[in-house]
Amino acid sequence: MSARISWTAGVPAGASASTSTPLGDCNTCAGETPAVQDIRALLATIPDPEIPAISIVDLGIVRAVRDDCVIITPTYSGCPATHFIEQSIRNALDEAGFRHVRIETTLSPPWTSDWISDEGHEKLRAYGIAPPPRGAVSASLRNDTHAQCPRCGSMNTAEISRFGSTPCKALWRCNACAEPFDRFKCH
Questions:
Q1: Which of 2, 3, 86, 139 is 20 to 30 A off residue 77, Cα-Cα?
Q2: Are 50 and 25 in the same domain?
Q3: Do residues 170 and 163 make contact, with C-beta atoms less than 8 angstroms apart?
Q4: Which of 90, 114, 138 is the last residue of a domain?
Q5: What is the mean pLDDT of residues 142-151?
Q6: Strand 102-106's sheet: what is its strand order?
């Protein structure tokens, strides 16, 4: 079963159009069915293929979970890992007995790095990737903020290249410990 892509500016039924958190963020929703809880827990075990230290849930790719549907948004529309992520979700759902659950990909509103969970920020840092600062998307795109070195914690850092090991990361260097590191780009 393939994913359906939504190109509309609308949002799924029952979801918020907020761009500060993922759509349908029901981690604390009252009345969530046991099936939705099971699906959500299953999705939290699926690692991002480009950054395996973080799950697709912590990365904010999972927008909503319902009894019959999982809605995802790639980190950007040209993300080369999108198909692999969809396939990983499909395989996990099928193996857990959720063959009836469809996967929808929506591009609107676009994913933002502010959707990375607090736990996701810590996982990125522990993996050696500087997480993006919260709410600093425009400043980061202009390179107005320094990245904190994930190894020594110094803010005495400099961007070496806007292009890192994957399209969603930039290459930085710490001037204090002289180590290079990736910084997750703000979007």
A1: 139
A2: yes
A3: yes
A4: 114
A5: 79
A6: 4-6, 102-106, 69-72, 62-65
Burial 31-54 (b: 16+ CB within 10 A, else e): ebeebbeebbebbeebbbbbbeeb
Cα atoms found within 13 Å of the Cα of residue 23, Cβ hemisphere only: 27
Taking the model in full, what pTM does it have?
A: 0.77
SS3 at position 85: helix
Q: 42-87 pLDDT, tens per residue? A: 999 999 998 999 999 999 999 999 999 999 999 888 888 899 999 9
3-state helix, strand, coil in the chain (%, to 5): 20, 20, 60
Tell me how crowded residue 185 is: count the other CB atoms within 10 A of its CB.
Answer: 20
Asked if 116 contacts 14 with a C-beta cutoff of 8 angstroms, the reply is: no
87: CATH? 3.30.300.130
Q: Which domain holds residue 69?
A: 4-114
Using an 8 Å Cβ cutoff, are 160 and 172 in contact? yes
**What's the token pair of residue 61?**
């790719």
154 Cβ contact partners less than 8 Å away, ≥ 6 residues apart: 148, 174, 175, 176, 177
Residue-wise over 108-140: b if at least 16 C-beta within 10 A, else e?
ebebbbbbbbeebbebbbeeebbbbbeeebeeb
